Structures are given as structure tokens and as C-alpha cells.
Amino acid sequence: MADLRRDPIVGRWVIVDTDHPNKPEDYEYEQHLSKAGVCPFCYGNEPMTPLEIDAFRDPSTAPNTPGWQVRVVPNKFPALQIEGDLDRRGIGIYDMSNGIGAHEVLIETPYHNKDIPDLLNEEIEKVIMMCCRRAQDLIKDKRFKYIMIFKNHGYAAGASLQHAHTQIIALPMVPKNVMEEIRGAFNYFQYRERCIFCDMIRQELQEGERMVFENKYFVSFCPFVSRFPFEVWIIPKKHNGLFCHLPQEEIPALASILKETIHRLKKVFPNLSYNFIIHTSPANSDTDGFEGYHWHIEIMPKLTRVAGFEWGTGFYAVTTPPELAARYLKGIN
Amino acid sequence: MADLRRDPIVGRWVIVDTDHPNKPEDYEYEQHLSKAGVCPFCYGNEPMTPLEIDAFRDPSTAPNTPGWQVRVVPNKFPALQIEGDLDRRGIGIYDMSNGIGAHEVLIETPYHNKDIPDLLNEEIEKVIMMCCRRAQDLIKDKRFKYIMIFKNHGYAAGASLQHAHTQIIALPMVPKNVMEEIRGAFNYFQYRERCIFCDMIRQELQEGERMVFENKYFVSFCPFVSRFPFEVWIIPKKHNGLFCHLPQEEIPALASILKETIHRLKKVFPNLSYNFIIHTSPANSDTDGFEGYHWHIEIMPKLTRVAGFEWGTGFYAVTTPPELAARYLKGIN
């Protein structure tokens, strides 16, 4: 019989198929599409993007020219716009606001065909440093309540360009799913006076069967209540609510575990499309109620098509138990 | 500038691109895949499915033989199993339960290539009647707290078989998203002593710009806070919390609006993949707290790939405003 498992943070139930679990070869996941045309993110094509916001570049070079390692530009088709005052109003029973926000693109590498596992550790460290720097800069703007950093890699994950990039969105309100996660963690904290993520790390390290990788400052594991097959979380061992407060000394460890984890996923699933999202505390908010939150990265491989069942209920059916997924990622199966 | 719109029921914010909205021709949605092989849902192939649970069939014919118009069978690969007692337990900080439930498939037509718009009204009425009958039967089992009825049509919507079918799942707990919707509607009811869905119908009929179709008992419209482009809801005009309490006299009107709405979607998007989900009140629950809920159908066309942004936050970006989508569905554009 399948397991039903309940997420201890947000209360979501998922069905885990422990009876007839899918092995990696059972997934028909889509391959990457190589798009034709000139890539605006490639080295030398800097004039094709909007003007550079920030970059790590050779100090002898000018913005919007070659000489960079990591480059941040505004999204050419931004979901939200940075100019203006937030204007919230009602229309009958509905509420709305104008679309104030920021939408930036961090180009991770000058090379067109490189994904995170193909980069050097030092290159990934620069990507992480730049994510922190942009988040620190954006939260200075008091209109922004949440900075979301995420990556869509590959066609099936929603990427429109193949060249490796991360997106940074500043939102004028805290998204619903984030708020739920924070409230769930806070309820646990109030009841137990402990952080639920810290407890989760302890239990995962002790049980071991869902662990993927560990280093001095981080762990990666397949969560007990995965929503997607081969989902992996990366969590800092030291309690810290805000990603952009990441201590300098932890950056190499984060680069290393991110590279290793995605490398292992792509070893099992070549050409995998995936999303990852940095879950972090809101910015510019009353910090009461955010005690007990702990930033982390959730990596979601795109192996299945999400169907009506999941959309309708938030009740996911997971075809590979996380315990089995972890074995494949560790190379035991 | 884009709109930010807030769902009045669950509090979700979405970004609606009113500046550069996508037209139907801007979507590259996937085509249906015709699967090779023998279809187990086709007329004459009855022995290929598990034993029939219920059917509308010629009274002179035996179960599991031809002679049927609508047929319900257990899912051959059920997510949940019907035998056993519910056994909930904890593992450290996690909670789990065994996978008790029911998972049935309603085969809508004996013909392999027909979708809802290709069926006669009387045939769709039989599908609806059978959905009600199965829900009424399943809620007699006190272990089941929620009966979910949904349809995955087409490859991109997660269907594994092309032959038109609806799925019925009985769950031993109320899914999180359903509970949120019910709580949101209840909060509104407590505050205003009115049903939020009834208010929504009133406002949509009055404003008119998101309306798609209307008959004596039902309306269909593109919701103000659509999560997906060309999303359409069908709602009964008369307040009713439970789908399976659908009055007999409303069935022809529901068949007609369902056929008309999906017909219009497929006129704009030939070979469209879509999901629909019947949102209804829980079964076998304390009915306090469910006042103010109003059953309805949510139809979600699969025109875009859902990316990291949506998964991470529940903060959807909608590339065609519902007002424009409704114009296309009404044939005005």
C-alpha cells in the first residue's frame, strides 16, 4: 500500500508510491531544446540586453562590454516595474494593486552551454555572492517585502533561454506560499521552542536514508514529504533565516554542495530540466512571527507532467519515494 | 504597468500582464499525442480493465461486456487502496498514514476520439449523473473525507490515455488547498453573511467583461484572479455546497454549459490539453465552517509551462488578462 505523508511545516499531504516505485529509467522526461538564433546572454552580446545593473568583471573593463564573469541585467520583459508608488485599491469584492517590483536576470557564466555542474567552484561562488549582493541591495527599497531568487533550467522547467541564468524578483507583498511556510515554522517554534528545519536536519542526519550529501556547513537530502520525484533540499546547518545574511565563510561550502547535488541529479538524468528556488524570510516586515524560519534551497527536477489532481488539491502523488531517490543520487542503486 | 490582483478567497496574488498581453497565436502549446496500441477504454475491450463498478448500459447486457454508454472501473494503477483501516502515526517530526482511499476511472464514451464537445448533450448528462452517483456512493464510506472529481485531457495535462475519461478519488483527509478555499469562503461568510461565490457571480454578471456563457442555472467566466491564461470557471447560480447534491433539473444546463465552454476553448486552441476539477465541500465532516462554500468547476487550459516562480510562491504570472481571454472565447476578437 502507498504511504500518505504529511508535511510538518504547511500541513500538505502527499501520496508516496512505496509499492511500485518508479526507477530513473521509468521517467520519460523531455530533453533540452537548443534554440536557434543569437543568445543575448553570451559574451560579446552585451548590447543585446538592457543596461547592466551589477557585475563581477575585470576592473579595466567598462559596464556592458566583455570582461565579466557574472552579470546582472533587468529582465527585458519584466513581470513587474520598478518606477512608481504602490497603489492598492478594491474593485467590488476584488483587490488589486499596480505592478510595482523588480525583475532582474543574473547571467551565471559567459559560456552558452554551461550548467552549474560545469562551472568551477569559484565561478559558482561568484554567482552566490552576486545573488546575496542583489538581495541586499533590493531590500533597501522599503516598498519590497520579498526577494525571490530562482532558476528555471531547461525547456520543461519553463526557461525561455538556454544560457544559464538565475532570476531575481522583488515583490511588494509576501507571496501566499511563503507566508504559509513561515507561519507553519513559527507555530512549531512556539510549541517546541525549536526551529523545525533544525529538527529536520537532525532527524535526516540521524536516519541517513534520505541524505544525499553533507559538508561542513550544509546538508542536501530528499525531503520525507517530497512533492516531486527526486526533489532535493539544501539547508545550512547553522540556523539563519535570511539567505542574504549568508556568512562569507559558508559561501564555498554552498557552491560545492550545489554543484555536487545538481551534478548527481544530472548523472542520473542527463539533460535534466529543473527549477530551484531559494526560500528565505521576508524583507522589511515586522520580524515577529519569523522566528523559527530557516532559509534553504528547494531543487525540483522536471520528470513528470503535473496533472489536475495536484493543481486542484495540493495533494501530490510522488512516484519515487525519497528514500529510493536518495539511493540513486548517492550512487548506491 | 502590469496589474497585481488578489484572490478574495485564498489571498493569492497574481501578476496580470495588461501591458503586453499574449494573444492566442502567441502560445506554443503542445499537440495531443496519439498513443499506439490497443485502448483498454474502447468499446469491446471491456476485459482489459478491472471489473466494472457501475455503468449506464443497455439493460439486456451484462457488466464487463459491450452495451454501455458510460462505464466506471477501478484505476488499474490506483494511487490509493480501498481495503483496510486508516492507520495514522508519527515518525520523529513527521506524520504519516497508510494509503487508504479509492481511485476510479469514469470512461465517458465508447468512442476513442471524442472529447466533451463531440458528445451529444444527453451523453454528457450521463457523465454528470454518473459522477454524482459515484460521489454519493463513496461518501457513504465514513473513512472518506473528500471526493475529488477531475479530468486530465491531453498529454500536456498529464493524461496517460487519450480516450476521454474522468477520475474520481476518495481521500481519507481534506486536501490542504480545498481546506484553504473553504476557510476563505467561510471567513467572508462570517464577515458579510453572504456567500463569496454568489457575490462573485453577481459582480461578474454585472460587469460582463469576463463572462463567457450563461444559461438558466449556470454561468461560465474567466476569473478576475485567473492563475492560468484562458482559465474558465463554471458555477451554479443557485447556492449549493456539494456537487453531488446537484438537483436533477440542473443537469441538462450543466451538460450544455460544459460542452459550450470547452467547445469555445477548443475553437480558439485546437487540440488543447486541459484539466478540470470539480471543487466541492468535504464529505463526512463537521458541517460547521462549510457554510458559504459553493461548488464549481475550474477549467485550466495547458498553454504554458509552469516555472519555478509559480511553484515557489503560488504567485502566478498570467500572460493574457481574463478580460481579453473572455473576448476571444466569446468570439469578439
Notes on the protein architecture:
Two copies of one chain form a homodimer. Chain A has 333 residues and is of the alpha+beta class. Chain A has one domain (3-86, 94-330): HIT-like (HIT family, subunit A). Helix content of chain A is 24%, strand content 23%. Chain A has six helices and 15 strands. In chain A, the strands form three sheets. A ten-stranded antiparallel beta sheet of chain A has the order 3-4-7-9-8-13-14-12-11-10, with helices on both faces. A three-stranded mixed beta sheet of chain A has the order 1-2-15. The first copy, chain A, has a two-stranded antiparallel ribbon with strand order 5-6. In chain A, α1 (121-138) crosses α4 (251-268). Chain A is globular, with a radius of gyration of 20 Å. The two termini of chain A are 23 Å apart. The relative contact order of chain A is 0.17. The interface between A and B is large, with 73 and 73 residues.
Return the domain count of chain A: 1
What percent of residues of chain A are in strands?
Answer: 15-25%
For the biggest β-sheet of chain A, the strand order reads 3-4-7-9-8-13-14-12-11-10
The CATH architecture of chain A can be named as 2-Layer Sandwich
- Low-confidence sequence ranges of chain A: none
Main sheet overview of chain A: 10 strands, antiparallel
Mean of residue pLDDT of chain A? 91
Cα-to-Cα separation, first versus last residue of chain A: 23 Å
Structural class determined from secondary elements of chain A: alpha+beta
Which H/E pattern describes the elements of chain A? EEEEEEEHEEHHEEEHEEHEH
CATH fold node name of chain A: HIT family, subunit A
How would you name the oligomeric state of the polypeptide chains in this document?
A: homodimer
Please provide the count of β strands of chain A. Answer: 15
Largest interface: A-B, 73 and 73 residues
Shape summary of chain A? globular
User: Any idea what the CATH superfamily of chain A is called?
Assistant: HIT-like
Q: Helix count of chain A, per DSSP?
A: 6
Radius of gyration of chain A: 20 Å
